[in-house]
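Sequence, please.
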């Protein structure tokens, strides 16, 4: 068997370096690619929402919660009788690999007390 020439050695080294670079970039993308740019994670926001706004909280409490998180709330209306039934808000949640937002919906009973919370991450498709 013959020893690899200097040219072959350089080519093998270049292929190995490119392979390592691709593996490194892939590992970084897997590890950090879906981390939100603004640092807001659905799980933490949901835990805070559940802890600070238990069932029976007032609409003023809900508005204060939105304000603490710098979210401008909107109103949710019942289409059948055009009455206000809740508050909604969104938090941008973009990352390297997804264009997303966290959606929050708070529903109130007729006497103005919180009865249901819905929070989820919506990912937009291309």
């Amino acid at each position: 068997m013959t020893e690899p020439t200097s040219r072959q050695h350089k080519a093998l080294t270049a292929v190995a370096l490119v392979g390592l670079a691709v593996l490194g970039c892939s590992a970084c993308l897997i590890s950090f690619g879906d981390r939100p740019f603004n640092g807001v994670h659905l799980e933490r926001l949901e835990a805070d929402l559940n802890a600070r706004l238990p069932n029976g909280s007032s609409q003023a409490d809900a508005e204060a919660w939105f304000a603490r998180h710098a979210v401008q709330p909107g109103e949710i209306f019942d289409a059948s009788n055009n009455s206000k039934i809740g508050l909604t808000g969104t938090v941008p949640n973009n990352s390297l690999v997804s264009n997303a937002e966290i959606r929050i919906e708070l529903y109130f009973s007729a006497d103005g007390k919180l009865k249901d919370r819905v929070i989820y991450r919506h990912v937009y498709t291309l």
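The chain has two domains: 1-38, 40-123.
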